[in-house]
Specification:
Elements lengths: L4 E7 L7 H12 L4 E6 L18 H12 L2 E6 L8 H8 L12 E6 L7 H13 L9 E4 L15 H26 L1
Parallel strand pairs: 1-2, 1-3, 3-4, 4-5
Helix pairs in contact: 1-5
Length: 187
């Protein structure tokens, strides 16, 4: 069995200095040697979802779907905008509804916010969408991070040990789920 695990990381923010992207980079640094986490930064290039569009002909949509399909698992980290996940993230996920790349795919979902709620409403809406898409997740692969600005330094490096451990736990749970699915596929 191939022990290399490929995980796609997706930030729900398009900001170049996004704290959510910094959280994903912190998770990348926590990954064991056999786990490759790569950041997908193309969701802002996707057109608005339209079910009548010939999406198989759109290069950006094909690229997005190819990356999702090739990954053993997905990590999404999102901010909260108006009590929801950002529209650009929802749009990216909408492009996967009819094609099924996320069906049965292990996913970790993290929301991070400067507020005390940690973006809980964004996580709730993201979790609902991921459920509709047939992903595999558990309470161990979901996390809200409150007061995020107090946990990153000026360069965006995670400085809070409790948050680092929480991210490590989420990543471990995701890896465990991926390994279980791979093992079951071999049997």
């Amino acid at each position: 069995m191939n022990n290399i695990i490929n995980i796609l990381a997706v930030s729900g923010s398009l900001r170049s200095n996004s704290s959510n992207t910094f959280i994903l980079k912190a998770m990348m640094a926590l990954a064991p040697a056999n786990v490759h986490i790569y950041l997908y930064d193309g969701i802002g290039n996707l057109p608005f979802f339209n079910p009548e569009t010939e999406y198989d002909a759109l290069t950006t949509v094909k690229d997005w779907r190819r990356h999702v399909q090739a990954a053993d698992g997905i990590i999404i980290c999102t901010p909260e905008y108006a009590f929801n996940m950002p529209g650009v993230l929802k749009n990216a996920l909408d492009w996967l509804v009819g094609s099924g790349e996320l069906n049965g795919k292990p996913v970790a979902a993290v929301s991070a916010s400067p507020l005390a709620t940690g973006g809980s409403k964004a996580l709730f809406s993201l979790e609902n969408t991921l459920t509709a898409l047939g992903t595999v997740k558990s309470e161990h692969t979901l996390l809200t991070i409150p007061f995020l600005v107090k946990k990153l330094d000026a360069a965006g490096v995670l400085t809070d040990e409790v948050t680092r451990q929480q991210l490590s736990n989420v990543l471990s749970a995701l890896i465990h789920t991926i390994e279980q699915i791979k093992m079951n596929a071999v049997e």
